[in-house]
Amino acid sequence: SQWIGQWAWVIVPWFWVVLYDPKYFANSAEGARTLSIWVGLFCMGLCMVPAIFGKTGDVPENLEVISRKNLKDNFSSLVKGLVETLKNAPFRRLCGATFLVFNAFNTVAGFSFFIIVHYMFGGQTGPDGSWIWPTLFGMSSALVTCFLVIPIITFLSQKFGKKNTFIISQGISVLGYILFYFCFVPGKPLLMFLPLPLFAFGIGGLFTLMMSMTADVCDLDELNTGARREGTFGAVYWWMVKFGFAVAGLMTGVIFSIVGFDSGASEQTSEALQGLLTAYVFVPMIGTLLAMWIMRGYDLSEERSHEIRAELEKRRGTTAIGR
What we know:
By secondary structure, this protein is mainly alpha-helical. Helices cover about 75% and strands about 0% of the residues. About 35% of the residues are buried.
C-alpha cells in the first residue's frame, strides 16, 4: 500500500514544470486552479473504483440497524466505540508519533520549492533557472522511498521488530535533515540530493510501519473487548492525521511570517531565506525526536502480538492468514 501510494509523489512534482511553462498557462496561479479541477476529478474517479467493483463478503446477522428510529442508539454506540479506541494506550502512542513526524514534515514540506528557487537560483523559474530542480528533488525522494526505504524497513522490522525499526528509521531521517542544512548550496544543485536516502526514511518508514502496528493494536483491542473495530481505529487515526495536516498548514503561514518570507515576491531577503532553511531542518527534526521519545514506551512487541493472535484464533476455532 505504501509502495503504491508513493507513485503519486513521483508524478505530482512534475506539475511544477507544467505550472511554470508559459506554453501551458499564462501564470502559475491560473495553472494551479485548472490542474486542481482535473486532478480532483481524476482522484474522485479512482475513489469510486472500490465502491463499484468491490465485493462484499458474508454480512454478520448481528449488525445494528441504522435508521432515524435508532439514531440515538447508533450515536451512543459510535461514541462508546471511539472512547474505547482512545483508551488503547499503544494506539495513542501510534497516533502521537504519527502526528509529530508527519505534521512536522508537512509544516515545512513546501519550503523545499522556495529554498531551491529563491535561495539556490535567485528566484529564477524559467527554463534557464530552477524550474526542473524542485521536480527532480520531489520525484527522487519518492523513488528512493519505493526502491530503497520500503524494502529495508520491511527487512529490519522482521529482524529487529517494528518498534525498534521505527526508532532506527526516524534516527536515520534526523541525520538526513541535518545534512540538508549543509547541502542546499547556491550554484550546486546536485549536492541537495545527497541527504535524500537518509531523509526518505522518515515518512517512508512511518506509514510502512504504522499500518502494520495498527493491525496489531486491533488484535489487542479484540482480545480485551471482544469487538473487531478496524474501521473505528482507522477513522480515528486518519482523522488525527488530517487534523494535524490542517495544523501544519497554519504553522507554515506562521513560519513564513516569522522569518519575513513573501512567497509572492520575486526577491527575498537573505535573512528570510536563511530562516526558511533553518525551519526546514529543525522543525521536522524536533518533531521526529519527540516521536521517538513517545515510541520508547510502546510495549506491544512481536512476541506479544503473536500470543494475542494465537489466543484469538483459539477463541474463534480458526487459523487466520499470517500477515
